[in-house]
Amino acid sequence: MTEIHAPRILLAEDDEAMRTYLVRALSNAGYDVKAVDRGTEAVPLLESESFDLLLSDIVMPEMDGIELAQRCAEVSPKTKVMFITGFAAVSLRASREQPHAKVLSKPFHLRDLVLEVERVFEEQQQAKV
Q1: pLDDT confidence of residue 4
Q2: I want to staple 39 with a disulfide (CB 3.0 to 4.6 A). Which of 48, 63, 79, 129 is the partner?
Q3: What b/e string do you get for 39-52 counting C-beta neighbours within 10 Å, with b at 16 or more?
Q4: How far is Cα 50 from Cα 7, in angstroms, rounded to an integer?
Q5: How many domains does the structure of the chain reveal?
Q6: 64 belongs to a structural domain
Q7: What CATH number does the domain containing 93 carry?
Q8: CA angle 98, 79, 37 (to 5 degrees)
Q9: Low-confidence ranges of the chain (pLDDT < 50)
């Protein structure tokens, strides 16, 4: 019998209040969430653990979300990527450089975030069928 596990999400968000808020919302929606405050902290986790989704802010110190997504594609190619950002111009760059990644612009309602995350996992399931 195969064990069904909650999808695992790696959240990279440098704003502490936003990170806490997102972890709570995603955990309440039934996801297994691990959160870090920068891309450079996320890379070793992507190399050593298995995640279904990388949910990353784009503008962060040390390594931005786009760079992180590129590293994710190298070390964990099965991990889906979704960006969150408060900057419209950055959103356009993310769409250009990571065309398969969903970009959610701040401010957003937590319900919208959870719906977008669910949509990513539904697409992933449909792709497996």
Answers
A1: 66
A2: 63
A3: bbbbbebbeeeebb
A4: 10
A5: 1
A6: yes
A7: 3.40.50.2300
A8: 80
A9: none
